[in-house]
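Minutes, project check-in
Item: structure for the 306-residue chain
Input as provided by the requester:
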Amino acid sequence: MSFDFWGAAKREFILLRLANTGRSVSSQVVVPILIGVWTGFSTHLLAISEFMFWGILSSLAITQLTLFLLTINSPFAAESFVQAARLEDQGNLLKDEVRRLANAQMVTFMWPFMEREYAKRQISQHSEVREVCAEMLAPIVAGRDTHFGIVPGEIWSFTVYLFDPSSKSLKPVWREKSETHPSSGPTRNWERGHGHVGMAFAKGEAIITQDASNPEESDLISPPKEKRREYDSTTYRAFAAIPIGGGLPDDKNGGSECVGVLVATSDAAMRFDKSNAFLLRHLASTLANVLERANIDSRLVWEEER
């Protein structure tokens, strides 16, 4: 069992504060009153017993001295409380990180079992691929707050694009988004090299943008004018575009071995980084294996759409 450092620090501060209060009351009220009363009757008390008089007076003095020696001054106690608060904040951050990693580990353990199950099926149609994507991304969507820190009210989306050889474009095969997402109607298709989706597909590399409002970042992945929407700049402020597959060039898929792109977006800056995007990378790799092992023909996937 781990030691509760911040809890111990808080308890120590409370004890210090109580001790300071007791010393203050004793030194300013109790002891002066007792000494005043005791010395006021000194003549009578000395007549009764000098030992009793001086013994009790000495006891009061010793009590005052003991309280003083056992009490740390108030400024130090306040510093102890501040330090305890900082330790508690650090502890909460560590707890959140441990919880995120534990949940991510559980998800990554589950995907290989799903991959083997899908390999047994004869998947070829658009609806079947969409079902696979929905099942594999379900824990990501449900745990978006834990995995990426997405909070209620945030505008987010997760989308899987697959390459359609006939149109030479990336088409959305599955998508989940927040209720407040401003997009409506069919999701945009992306040509190779266009926008962050097409760019990730063309390069075969992940594109992670923490704040698209930064001109240096937005200029590199800005889509063609005809593809832009008025809500793009505010809705897609942070995103991670992860290639599904990748490696050596393959003319069949327009110059890339990638079969598609997994995309996560948010209207909150700094939402995605290399640390939390590893889960998306793992999922994209598993999706690539599923599509390959199931022997899916991309032409059949889009047959229903034409």
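Outcome recorded: Residues 248-256 have pLDDT under 50 and may be disordered.
No further action items on this chain.
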